[in-house]
Amino acid sequence: MRILIAGAGIAGLTAALSLHAAGLDDIRLVDAAPEIRPLGAGINLLPNAVRELAALGLDEAVGASAVSTTELVYFSRHGEVIWREPRGRAAGHRWPQLSVHRGKLQMVLLAAVEERLGGQRVRADARVTDFRLLPTGRVQVNLAHRTGGTTTTEADALIGADGIRSGVRRVLYPGEGPPVWQRQVVWRGIAKIPPFADNRSMFIGGDRTWKVVAYPIAPRPDAAGLVDTNWAVARTFGPDEVVDRAEWDRVVDPAKLLAALDGWVFGPLDVASLVTAAKAPFEQAMVDRDPLPRWTFGPVTLIGDAAHAMCPMGSNGTTQAIVDARALAAAVAGHPEVDTAFTAYERERLDRMTLLQNCNRALGPEVVVAMADRASSVTRPGPSASALDRELAEVSRRYAELGGFDVAMANTDSSYSVRRRPGPGRPTPQETGS
Ligand SMILES: Cc1cc2nc3c(=O)[nH]c(=O)nc-3n(C[C@H](O)[C@H](O)[C@H](O)COP(=O)(O)OP(=O)(O)OC[C@H]3O[C@@H](n4cnc5c(N)ncnc54)[C@H](O)[C@@H]3O)c2cc1C
């Protein structure tokens, strides 16, 4: 059975490795990028995603260039600690939480695909523009290339892992339009600064309008004693504010942010110094996608951002893309027909992802910053400190459960390590490995 994966990002490459580990070997990937290069900035992998990478034998390779995060601290804009919680191993997880450069993660996955599946499996400069089901039951896929030319290819199944602007999704939902703007602008950058705290902490702080996120993505300082530190600053616009979005999607001078962030200090971290140390911060609209009623249409399905792109709250975008890929491969291994496998995958994942998308639109776990800001601004007696603490703890607990990374759920072995049996029958659970 030939499986074509649109997109060689995190979801697509993990799907290829997981399908291969499940016993399938006729797998091809196409990607719109002219070449697969280590692009992006920092991302976080929660323990439930690291468990799946461990099942593929890749946790150590990814971990080698990542930070094993030990703590998450929320601050008010005035620098008071609102909430702090241990993360990853420090919180009792079997697998760590990893903060890593997206491009480094992608290159580890790509190298594993080339080594395990063989070279020539990933074709760059091939954008999926259209597809149709043939009377034979196969899928014919149209690809566009930078030369302006087009080609077609055929497969028994098509997996749309082609991100928030997915071409596969556009064919399935032609009237949907562009991603949905969430009335926020976000600036992102990487700054080389002296390590803050224990060089394993993630700091998030702000108020109801401005939010700052900062965490290191290099496990140790360079020769100059500096550490690559990922940051993002988001500004929320009120419903009546008029916003000119025409100038976004560009590199900006970080000085642009200084008026808003001047004097912000989170414990050992001076926010203004962090932001101004970044080389080329990028300014863009914060967008996501509406939840979909279904991802699977016969032998075609969606995974990762193509299925459920969500606002970047709570470190879940990449984490859930990895879990999707593993769940999909396990479903394919467990069903003789690809259509029923894709439907089973959707049944397992769609409802939870819809809840997560909606939760992230309501700020996800980072709502604690807004809650604390609101509590500090009420003039009549607000909630007592201990009542607020209980509320914040409950937000954190519910979100971990929703994302599948609370200790009880994430400490069990991966249930997605299965191998396809020749012919009909149930898959055999197996030890980890490729
Ligand atoms: C260049 C880049 C940089 C990013 N940087 C960050 C970051 O710094 N921080 C962060 O939180 N998230 C970042 N993201 C998004 C993040 O990778 C995803 O939210 C998450 O990892 C889910 O991964 P995904 O594989 O579903 O989507 P993606 O990682 O977006 O991968 C989608 C892949 O599909 C390819 N593609 C797109 N359209 C087509 C098409 N029509 N046909 C074939 N291929 C197509 C893209 O080239 C890409 O390789 C970035 C994504 C990209 C593509």
From TrEMBL:
Residues 3-171, 292-353 form the FAD-binding domain. Residues 411-434 are annotated as: Disordered. It holds the Pfam family FAD_binding_3. GO terms for molecular function: monooxygenase activity. It comes from the Bacteria. Keywords: Monooxygenase, Oxidoreductase, Signal. Residues 1-21 form the signal peptide. InterPro entries: FAD-bd, FAD-dep_Monooxygenase_BioMet, FAD/NAD-bd_sf. PANTHER family: 5-METHYLPHENAZINE-1-CARBOXYLATE 1-MONOOXYGENASE, MONOOXYGENASE. This is FAD-dependent monooxygenase. It comes from Micromonospora humidisoli.
